[in-house]
Fold this protein.
Amino acid sequence: MKTRFKSALKMVPVLLLVFLGGYFLIAGVIVLTLYALKEFTSVFGEKKPAAWVFVVSTILLYAGFLIPQIRMYVVLPWLFLSIVLCFLSMFQMEKRDLMQGLATFLGVFYVIFLTFHIVLVDESYLQQAIQIPVTDTFTLTLSGIHSYLWVVILAAFGTDIFAYFIGMAIGSRKLCPSISPKKTVEGAIGGVLGSVLLCGLFGFFFLRGGFATCIVIGIVGGVVSQLGDLSASVLKRKIGIKDWSSLIPGHGGVLDRIDSLLFTAPMVFYILMIKATLFGVV
């Protein structure tokens, strides 16, 4: 427990990137994505997916996103190009088998595509961004504390923390014993309640007009984040590993830390999209 706590404290500076947002966050997410892809690639032994596809796909996605004129239209063309690249990686018939090709597809969509939603939440739905004039023609915009990206973090990690401690305290009925033997039904329910509590409090104090949205995110996020965690456990069991890496003592690797975020960030982004479409506001 002490090792896990110390390792968690070392991750706190990463939250600074969430506060800064914008280009700072994009740079951080790119680094996170590339390292997560490195972890993902390393666990397949000699049957590694095509790492060059991951690098090219990441560059294409973020290079396109950084061009304002095409930012809103970049995802679908990127999806098409990434699919083409995945198939191209299998053209070397004598070097790559079908499973390597499928692993390449999985890395593109599971790591690159899902992680990209962290940037989408930050870029699209800032409530009260901090404006800092730098020159007469340039103003630096920081996400600050009034961003739905904090709700993503609270829903994902709040669920994880509450589920862990409530499961330890009163958990008795196994949730998915074949996937994650330590998870309990009581812990899962506690995780959802914890997510609702934290998201609701944040929405009430920091997101003007966003309280109801945060409650919805808390409920759905409490479920979805646990699905993300369990899905990662399924992947690791199928591959035959306990953690993606040993980068963070007591926590595993980058992918082990963000597995719930990979499902929660898209969920929050699409909830906000639906709300904006129906009501014209976030």
Summary: The chain has eleven helices and four strands.
